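chain below, 235 aa
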Amino acid sequence: MLIFRTLMAPPTSQDQFKLICPIWPKGSEKSGTSVNAEAAALVAESFAAWRSPGLAPWLSFGRQPKRREVERLLTTISPLIAHQRIATARRNRLAYEQEQELIQRLQTLGWTKLKSRTIDNQASLAFKEFMHKARFASGISGRAEVDIALGLPKTIVLAMECKVTNDETNSVKRINDVVKKADAWKDHWGNFVQPAALLQGVVKFSDVRRLLEKNVQVFWSHRLDLFETWLGEQA
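prediction:
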């Protein structure tokens, strides 16, 4: 599916293709699982409508491709795919380092790291206890993963999402993820949860404002000292 998305005009991300073809199961690209006949037909229809005719001209005429056409196609899309994969790998590496730095900082401050489990009641985390990659109840059957969950006084849980963005366009998706989870957690837990975001990279000011308007605490990886100060004020 990655190849098909790259052949579109312009090349689309998974989320963008999902908007074009809502029936497409995004997870199938990573898992390699098949899709049903209806979804496959609509994916093919969407691809035909949005593909770049110049990259694969033989499809327009229902013929076999010529060797030079295949070579041109590979020469064109290979750098695009490589750039995307490098950007994703870099973001994943930075995200891992971001989370590990926060964990080390918490442990230095005397916080206790617990084994990750589902947080489904107010007593799941005592003050100065935290979990990494825990499941956070967010509805009757919802279990949304939270990057770092910290126990604050009065049985309040700080649910922190760690987000690294490569550019302003990418930041929109990352901030949308935070807002969606924050809304679900607030609806389920009310004032017993405090959503937060630890940001790193290029983030649009309007996206930061969106978080603040949703009462999400915003912190920055390069100023963890301010996060430490905030934690101290909660005691």
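Residues 53 and 61 are 11 Å apart (CA to CA). Residues 2-65 form one domain.
thats it, cya
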